[in-house]
Specification:
single chain; 361 residues; six-stranded mixed sheet; alpha/beta
């Protein structure tokens, strides 16, 4: 029996299977048991001929998923535990599994979608945003490199928009999510229930039927701002280093660019440099599996770096927004510091690209 207080609700309506992340008071933050539950459900549904599509949504009206449970990651990093690498192993496998799922996987990216929430939805076959959508990969603010395949998605955004979002962690609305390739369709939030019911109709049998159904409910999103900002973003982020990017932003004479420079200077210097290196490595022709393998290395390295504990402390635990980064300035971060984020972790690699990691639970 499924209880309403379970962290993941699984259900069926017609030919569609439903996954509802059910921790609304925690913005549906993702835990390891939730990952295992979703992966096991996908295993069953992929073998079930009566399931024609899967719909992912979040309980409540605030968001699909605000990311992983970073309080748990903070405690793990602070105490030298091993729970986070185990969580990331299964989480990244699930990200790859969703991308390769053989049936239409529809993600309703309503409200806040950040970090691990992007990992669950951004690799789906059909990604739907609403006027309430707020997407971000905010990892550099807590000493992490964007993971869950976020750099794979962002590295394929037009021009330097992806690099801008990866380094700053800035939030984007529906129009900019569509522009950057993080979503496929805009559907007003008030139409999501009707859309879900339509997807369960007997006539919806394959990917083409799903797309046709979604298009009947789709609309034009409210305007974004990245298209207008792209000229200075492309020019500034074309630089070879984070330091030069910051210099170009400060020298641009544009208030928005100068504000962006200040945002970057508030982020973990080590995470910024490691993120830029990841973005440059994770673009085409890299596969998602290769990117997830590299993300696992970077996340394990961050777990052993003091910026992760300090970043979460400043942003979530004490909420003073005054992190004491180590090192504290970009100029003090060495090439060796960055190289550690691409080194194999003590417990071994993820192995998705080599086919040594199973995509199921």
């Amino acid at each position: 029996m499924v209880h309403d207080d379970e962290p993941v609700l699984l259900g069926r309506a017609g030919g569609t299977a439903r996954i509802t992340l059910n921790r609304p008071r925690a913005l549906n933050a993702l835990t390891h048991p939730m990952v295992v539950t979703v992966a096991a459900a996908l295993d069953r549904w992929e073998r079930d001929p009566d399931v024609t599509a899967v719909i992912l949504s979040g309980a409540g009206e605030r968001g699909l998923c605000a990311g992983g449970d970073i309080r748990a990651i903070h405690e793990d990093a602070r105490t030298g535990g091993s729970a986070s690498p185990a969580f990331w192993r299964d989480e990244y496998r699930l990200n790859a599994r969703i991308a390769r799922f053989s049936k239409p996987f529809v993600a309703l990216m309503d409200g806040i979608v950040m970090g691990g929430g992007v990992g669950l939805s951004g690799h789906a076959g059909v990604r739907i945003v609403t006027e309430r959508s707020a997407l971000a990969m905010p990892e550099t603010a807590i000493g992490l490199v964007p993971d869950v395949g976020g750099t794979y998605l962002l590295a394929r955004a037009p021009g330097a928009l992806g690099t801008h979002l990866a380094l700053t962690g800035n939030t984007v609305g529906p129009a900019d999510a569509l522009l950057c390739g993080l979503a496929d369709h805009f559907v007003p939030a008030g139409r999501l229930t009707a859309l879900s019911e339509a997807l369960a109709a007997p006539g919806v049998r394959d990917a083409a039927d799903v797309t046709e159904t979604v298009l009947r409910y789709a609309a034009t999103p409210p305007g974004g701002r990245l298209a207008e900002d792209r000229p200075w973003i492309d020019a500034c982020y074309a630089a070879d280093s984070v330091t030069e990017i910051v210099d170009r932003l400060l020298d641009s004479g544009l208030p928005a660019a100068k504000d962006t420079a200040q945002t970057l200077l508030s982020r973990s210097p080590t995470a910024l440099k490691a993120t830029l290196a990841a973005m440059r490595a994770d673009g085409p022709p890299s596969t998602l599996e290769e990117v997830l393998d590299r993300a696992y290395r970077a996340s394990c390295a961050a777990l052993a770096h003091p910026d992760l504990v300090e970043g979460i402390r400043a942003r979530v635990i004490d909420k003073d927004r005054a992190p004491r980064w180590s090192p504290k300035e970009l100029a003090q971060v060495t090439e060796a510091d960055v190289a550690r984020f691409s080194a194999p972790p003590p417990g071994g690699d993820l192995g998705l690209a080599e086919g040594t990691a199973h995509l199921g639970p």
